[in-house]
Design brief:
81 residues
Length: 81
């Protein structure tokens, strides 16, 4: 999932990928539901498929993946020409 980032806090979900297979995945394409019109910081967050229905159900399911209690997330600066 790709979240907006406002004031250093994670905001609404603006994009998602298809369900990824277990293991390492490279070059993931993310479709934006809310396209960016200006350059902006965003956060990529890894979610678990925790109810086995292959549909994204957050916040009622498919919670964020955590390592050592911290959400697996990567801040990204998107530059729009």
């Amino acid at each position: 999932m790709i979240h907006e980032q406002t004031g250093g806090a994670m905001g609404r979900i603006i994009g998602e990928s298809t369900l990824l297979p277990p293991g390492t995945t490279m070059a993931v394409t993310v479709s934006l539901m809310h396209p960016l019109t200006t350059s902006a910081p965003v956060v990529a967050v890894l979610h678990l498929e925790d109810n086995n229905n292959t549909t994204f159900d957050f916040p009622n399911g498919d919670q964020e993946a955590k390592v050592g209690g911290a959400v697996v997330e990567i801040p990204i600066q998107v530059n729009v020409p």
